[in-house]
């Protein structure tokens, strides 16, 4: 930054001005009416959440937790019962049109005309937002190339594979150059190879400056892509913060050991660890994160058990998710938000 000033000009500050969040929801509530007075369904119970500009943010929760309602309110498809929503500082209730111009939404359902060509789908979509046709055509080529669909641009969309249709949905949402892209289960029903290709596309979109909010049931996907997350259950946020900080809350680790030969009937006792034979050649080990893994190997070796290979038992985010939503199911959802302090910066 150039800190020199000219006569009459205000001095330039070297401190960056604070930025408003890409998305800020405060005390958001939604009650769906029931069949009679007083028996409505409270889908959101005072949810407060900020998503910073440029973030790749995961919104996780079991079915019926309130994710779809929250996304529906933010994208102006569902009316809120209380609270507020701001998109880059623009209040959704006061200036809906301006807020919506900042958002791109990729819903879970495929909702384009299967008898249109991908190029026409993108150009017509841009036309709804007043983008001139010449500019729309240029953007459509750019987005279809990024989605690896340019060679399919003039084919009937119904002939595309499931993964191609998902990529087409993302390309369509990007036609308006949204500053905030909301993805609701974007890789549902596609195989792992296609899913990983879509991950790369989403990383490129995020790296170019677009803030992304992702809902997914593939927890590996969230852990691979996202820097921050919130877990919602029964209409309340039960945990929110940086991905690494939340995962660090896990105090145990699980491993599966593949054993050479056959496991003995009596397994060695290792203080602090739990050993379970899942079959004659596989050992399930759960141990505190602080425990030295060499202790386990030494005890197994003393018992004549030789480990041929090992792998983590489960996705770490999946374990955290099950614990948070499982505890909530037992103890009852609360309106409090379990916040995790941001990680210290160097």
Query: How far is the first residue's CA from the last residue's CA?
Result: 21 Å
Proportion in β-strands: 25-35%
The whole-number mean of residue pLDDT values reads: 85
Count the helices. How many?
Answer: 10
Biggest sheet features? 6 strands, mixed
- Which class best fits the helix and strand makeup? alpha/beta
CATH superfamily of the largest domain: P-loop containing nucleotide triphosphate hydrolases
Question: Briefly, what CATH class of the largest domain?
Answer: Alpha Beta
Helix and strand run: EEEHEEHEHHHEHEHEEHEEEHEH
Q: What ranges have pLDDT less than 50 throughout 5 or more consecutive residues? A: 1-15, 328-346
> How does CATH name the architecture of the largest domain?
3-Layer(aba) Sandwich
The largest beta-sheet arranges its strands as 6-7-8-3-9-10
- What share of the residues lie within helices? 25-40%
CATH topology of the largest domain: the name is Rossmann fold
What is the tally of beta strands? 14
Keywords: ATP-binding, Nucleotide-binding, Transport
GO molecular function: ATP binding; ATP hydrolysis activity
Protein name: ATP-binding cassette domain-containing protein
InterPro entries: AAA+_ATPase (IPR003593), ABC_transporter-like_ATP-bd (IPR003439), ABC_transporter-like_CS (IPR017871), ABC_transporter_ATP-binding (IPR050763), P-loop_NTPase (IPR027417)
Which descriptors would you attach to this protein?
single chain; 346 residues; alpha/beta; Alpha-Beta Plaits; 2 domains; four-stranded antiparallel sheet; 14 strands; globular; disordered N terminus; ATP binding; nucleotide-binding
